[in-house]
Design goal:
With about 120 residues, the protein is an alpha+beta fold. Helix content is about 40%, strand content about 20%. It has a four-stranded antiparallel beta sheet with strand order 1-2-3-4, covered by helices on one side. β3 and β4 form a beta hairpin. The longest helix is centred in the C-terminal third of the chain and has 28 residues. It is elongated, with a radius of gyration of 20 Å.
């Protein structure tokens, strides 16, 4: 299970990987707690000369799941709230599939008793 600090390190590593393609200094701008983890918003550091944050494209926030340690880069073309809701539905479907598989496995007679 990830802590927020662990999640922050994952996101910073992803951002660091972009540094060769983006000429600006990048940083995490804001973090919000979610039921399953966190969402990290990131962007360019304020430009001291212009007093503005340089515009970036494709800097959708990262979702980080504390339980399964997934790091998901979101799209900038879809509202963040919708992407969070989609991911929560995905988690429910995965949990349902795991529960169904566990029930089936529990109902199967063991191979040890079949061969006796």
């Amino acid at each position: 299970m990830l802590t927020e600090e662990d999640a922050r390190r994952l996101v910073l590593a992803e951002i660091e990987g972009l540094r060769g393609r983006i000429e600006y200094d990048l940083q995490i701008l804001r973090v919000e707690a979610l039921p399953f983890g966190w969402i990290f918003y990131w962007g360019a550091v304020w430009d001291g000369r212009s007093g503005q944050r340089p515009p970036l494209s494709g800097n959708g926030p990262f979702l980080v799941d504390r339980e399964n340690e997934r790091l998901i880069r979101t799209a900038t073309s879809v509202p963040v709230a919708r992407q969070i809701a989609d991911y929560e539905r995905r988690l429910r479907r995965e949990a349902h599939a795991q529960n169904t598989a566990a029930k089936r496995a529990a109902q199967q007679p063991s191979t040890a008793t079949q061969h006796q």
